[in-house]
Amino acid sequence: MKNPLRKRLFKEFKAEIGKYLVIFIFMAATIGLISGFTVASSSMKIAYDNSFEKYNVEWGHFTVGSELSDELVADIEKDNDVTMIKDYYKNLVTTPEADGKSPDDDTRTMRIYRSRDVMNKICIMDGRLAETDDEIALDRMYAVNNNIDIGDTITVAGKNFEVTGYTAFPDYSCLFEDNNDTMFDSMLFTVGIVTESAYDKLDKSKEVYNYAWQYKKAPADNKAEKKLSDDFLEDIIQKIYTSGNTIDLYIPRYQNRAINFTGDDLGGDTVMMFTLLYIVMVIMAFVFAVTTNNTILKESTVIGTLRASGYKKSELLRHYMTLPVLVGLLACIVGNVLGYTCMKKVGESAYYGSYSLTTYVTKFNLTVFLLTTVAPFAMLVIINALVISTKLKMSPLKMIRKDMTKSKRKKAVKLPHFKFMNRFRIRIILQNISSYLTLFAGIFFADVLLLFGLMMTPLLNHYKKEIVDTMICKEQYLLKTPVETKSEGAEKYAASSVVIDDDNEEEVTVYGISPDSRYFKKDMKEGDIYISEGYAKKYGIDVGDTIKLKDEYEDGKYSFKVSGTYYYPSTISVFMPIEDFRSVFDVDEEYFTGYFSDKPLDDIDSSYVLSIIDEAAMTKASRQLETSMGSMFQLFNVFAMLLFALMVYLLTKIIIEKNTNSISMTKILGYTNREINGLYMTANVWVVIISTLIGIFISAATIKPIFSAMMANYVSGYMDCYIAPYIYPLMIVISLVVFLLVQLTQMKKIKSIPMDEALKNVE
């Protein structure tokens, strides 16, 4: 015999379609966005790792003052068991005016290569490579950032080229013009490829004699790679300098930021996405508990009658679990379909907006599937089962009477002598105190999510300003070799890069500061160790704690007891007296690596300068952050507001449904729909305003440890949790606007409640 309970499923679904639609959208959107983003991220990481073999990426490169002879190249290859190629390029300049840009825009540098078909092969992202002398293929990310379409004409060094395609250079997955730049720049620097004959016609004086190499036998690990690199460098120094030539630049793969930065950073944003997932999962748990409890309350009379008729608890549990499970299962399926189709483009655009990655193929990720799909679905099933089974423990009689509480009835609260309408509204709030407490909790969870979305863009802008404002000096010179200067105000310092001695192995810059420094605003004594505030906050380090560091490719390990912190918030740095630095790192007593200065050091030849960290360099870093992450944060804002709206809709809907009898009774007493809306909606507005004000400040306190936990897992650097002051009133405005829009839908619900509803439920 067919179970009669099944006949009720469609009727229940039709009556609760709004609730189930919200849950469906809630789950599907969350699963779709987060799974899509993380799947794209993991798939791109796989493609990046495979690109080294697929595109035959170099193990390193060096530049020389003049072209090497074929005999010398053959000799180097034989003695070092390597394969070398000529990878010459020309650094050319294009002016903003020539490209039709504003004259106020910065000048752009284009590094032009000829065809590459042996090593560092080109990935064609769209279009084709150049075939004639007036054509050029450009790096995709630079072209997109500067609104250059395929078919457009650009001017390079006074010559016009038609853009025929977008490319990705595997050895320029990050567009670092110089390996010592603080940040890559996909706005003002790019690489391009032209035909052999077109390359020969370009300015010969701008040519750089660059040689790339590969080991015939790949090194086993990083230490083996460093040893091979050091041996190779020692050999070519002897051979090249003996031939009367010079080595201008030597960069092995493990030190090449244009190659490695992407791999180190790729996937770092997934920390933020999983943080979002955890927040949303808490919200989901809350929503499931509230909606299930409300369903049982509405159905209590039916449940009690069925229990009294002989139905088992297990049968009723299965019945009331059916719809939530089916809706949740459908949401999981749709969410994954969305994630692997359109939503993965969100993550794709975020990473393609940051890196010059090659093409990738979407790969199924079991971990992502378990975290984004299985976990939420299991949570839905468990929470619903617990809530329903707990309620089913009550006696049939109590359920028939809709007496779902275990406590005794309380006496009515005597209200002050307010106006009747205000007293009525207060009475509504007091009679529905549990529902409004639920609404408060829902608003709090929604505020956490909304705040998380709204704070990111101003936080990034604050970070951009902060990294410029907290520079040690206006002109920080890093030298290739120590050279003296007579410039007033120049101050020597030493610096070395190490990593934290843990699984994270984050890079740390150790500075040796000169005595009585005018730039380092701390009076350090011998043995003092100061760390940047960013280092202290990220890893929870206090004064007196011991930090452990190590060389990344050597066996050296270092332990330092922290004497204090220094306001250098966005970096992971250590500061000590320069004499201590020289002792710790076993260098000579006159050793230094650069100068701090507030003005350019004109008496130092540029050939001795490795890099200059100035405001322009820091602006480059902030500009790239804005370019690569800004759009993702905007999308996050939209997602947060959507979930906020769904949350408020669901909870206010529940409140209206719980007050169906009271609303019906007021209609019997002669109140119009407009008057009833004024009574109930005004009460809701009061609660929402108070809840929002309280919820905002509680959510602000909650978001800080969440953000700190997120930053602790971030790849490099640190951003303090900054909430712009205007965020708070903005959240209030958004909350009220969303609430009022939601109330428009609930007014229709109030209007549809018939007068006889109250008479149906008279005990």
* Strand count: 21
Q: Which percent band covers the strand fraction?
A: 15-25%
How many structural domains in the coordinates? 3
Query: Please, what is the average pLDDT?
Result: 82
Report the end-to-end length measured between terminal Cα atoms. 34 Å
Coarse shape:
elongated
Q: Helicity, in percent?
A: 40-55%
Class by alpha and beta content: alpha+beta
Radius of gyration: 33 Å
How is the biggest beta sheet arranged?
A: 11 strands, mixed
Low-pLDDT segments: none
Number of separate helices: 22
Oligomeric composition of the shown chains: single chain
Question: What's the structural blueprint in terms of helices and strands?
Answer:
Blueprint: H1 5-15, H2 17-54, E1 60-64, H3 70-80, E2 82-86, E3 89-94, E4 108-113, E5 123-127, E6 135-139, H4 140-145, E7 153-156, E8 159-168, E9 189-193, H5 196-201, E10 207-215, H6 222-242, E11 247-252, H7 257-265, H8 270-298, H9 300-308, H10 313-340, H11 344-352, H12 366-392, H13 396-400, H14 420-431, H15 433-469, E12 475-479, E13 491-500, E14 507-513, E15 530-532, H16 533-539, E16 546-550, E17 557-561, E18 564-566, E19 573-577, H17 578-584, E20 594-597, E21 609-614, H18 615-658, H19 660-668, H20 673-712, H21 727-752, H22 757-760
Parallel strand pairs: 4-9, 6-8, 14-19, 15-18
Antiparallel strand pairs: 1-10, 1-11, 2-10, 3-4, 3-10, 5-8, 6-9, 7-8, 12-20, 12-21, 13-14, 13-16, 13-20, 15-19, 16-17
Helix pairs in contact: 1-10, 2-8, 2-10, 2-11, 2-12, 2-18, 3-6, 8-12, 8-15, 8-18, 10-12, 11-18, 14-20, 15-18, 15-20, 18-21, 20-21
